[in-house]
TrEMBL record:
It is an enzyme of class 2 (transferase). Keywords: Membrane, Nucleotidyltransferase, Transferase, Transmembrane, Transmembrane helix. This is Phosphatidate cytidylyltransferase. One of its GO terms (cellular component) is plasma membrane.
């Protein structure tokens, strides 16, 4: 069943609920900041703003069309890969090879757009993993070769291959998820990912005592991690039947 703009009703209801929560959260944060001007709630402010941006962007993609959504997701991969490459050491001789990494982004998302899963699932982890070492080897520079191949290949894996699965969910989900379509699957993924982050933050602030990785993420605690995972599991079971083809016991719904 669809609503305005052919958007599945579960997705519309889900977005309406998210916006209601965002309005409530924004009001609560504003009151907290007004009562306490010390700035210790700045992290909450930043998290709320990021939520508004993410849900706003998702809504724009939903209102327009699937092609716009795929292009937007491809842009996210581009920005992620660009940020990754700015953090890792690269050899001067391999600078031109980076162009091939960027060109892999539209190709990977094209496979998702045409729903060619067979090519989608092997293009980066097989073909690009073979292509990069060959091209780099032909340049004749052996110093730092293995590190350069590994960092570039796995960077593409993390920022392009993994993120492009959102586009594949969007395209292929219509056939597998008659209730909410690919939009429902994508919304389910985005909401649970962000709610997990929020839940870990809240549980960590309330009960956090023991650090998970003090040098990597000083604010991450075991209490927050466990509480966030448990909360996410409960929420997944609650909203899964409305946005995905899974029921409360994580089994496929019977046909009809």
């Amino acid at each position: 069943m669809t609503g305005p703009l052919d958007i599945p009703l579960p997705v519309l209801y889900g977005l309406a609920g998210i916006y209601a929560l965002l309005v409530a959260a924004s009001l609560i944060v504003a009151v907290m900041r007004r009562r306490d001007g010390s700035g210790r709630h700045q992290e909450l402010v930043d998290r709320t703003k990021s939520w508004w941006w993410m849900i706003g962007a998702f809504t724009v993609c939903v209102v327009l069309n699937q092609t716009v959504a795929i292009v937007f997701l491809g842009l996210i991969s581009y920005l992620a890969l660009k940020e990754y490459l700015s953090l890792i050491p690269t050899r001067r001789i391999d600078r031109s090879v980076l162009l091939y990494a960027y060109l892999a982004i539209p190709i990977q998302y094209y496979w998702a757009a045409i729903d060619w899963y067979g090519m989608f699932v092997v293009f980066v982890p097989v073909w690009m993993f073979l292509f990069f070492p060959i091209v780099m080897a032909l340049r004749g520079e052996t110093e730092g070769y293995l590190r350069a191949v590994g960092t570039l290949s796995w960077g593409l894996m993390m920022t392009v291959f993994t993120l492009s699965h959102m586009a594949m969910l969007l395209v292929a989900g219509d056939a597998e998820n008659p209730m909410a379509g690919g939009l429902g699957l994508l919304l389910f993924l985005v909401v649970l990912t962000q709610l997990n982050d929020v839940a870990q933050y809240v549980w960590g602030r309330m009960l956090g005592r023991h650090k998970v990785t003090p040098t990597v993420s000083p604010n991450k605690t075991w209490e927050g991690l466990i509480g966030g995972v448990a909360t996410t599991i409960v929420l997944a079971g609650a909203i899964g039947p409305y946005l995905t083809p899974m029921d409360m016991v994580w089994s496929p719904r019977p046909a009809g």
